[in-house]
Amino acid sequence: MKKLLYIPILLLAAACSDKPKDKATELAELKKQQAEINDKITKLQAEGGTTDSAKTADVSVYKIEAKSFSNYVEIQGKVDAEENVTAYPQAQGIITAIYVRPGQRVSRGQTLVQLDNSVLKQQLLQAQAQVELSSTLFQRQKTFGIKKLVPRYNFYRLKLICKLRKSSTMRLNNRQRYILLNRQLTAL
Prior knowledge:
By secondary structure, the chain is mainly alpha-helical. The chain has four helices and three strands; from the N terminus they run H-H-E-E-H-H-E. The protein has a three-stranded antiparallel sheet with strand order 1-2-3, with no helix packed on it. Helix 1 runs antiparallel to helix 2 (about 25-50) and helix 3 (about 120-145) runs antiparallel to helix 4.
């Protein structure tokens, strides 16, 4: 292979020379150069070893199959939450049910826990009974007040008591909705 590369180079060099030569002398010179080049090639092959310059490599063959790919990377880092929220109930009580797990994403208005509302129910029933009683007394005083049988201040006192007890009942009704601790914040 190398021999074949030298021949075109020699021909090119000979073609570029300035002297016009006849073909016989030119052929003799080229053969002489070829012989010199062949001698150099054989000397180099003897010194360098084998004529095969290609290197060998082991080749393996694998059959490709579809498999699940699992690759794990172990890293260390720090995770910062966008928003950490601590929720406090507006009413005190014992937790009877928890509707979320730690770390779970919650949305606005979602019920988180339920508090024991048995005490609140008792207070609400008691307040409703007091409202009924004060309403009945107020109605009686009203009829007696029209007939001028009762002093006017008693009439106004019972009217005020009746209003206060109704507002107290309304507050207890409102507190009952706080038994369920809801997520009230806007962003998550």
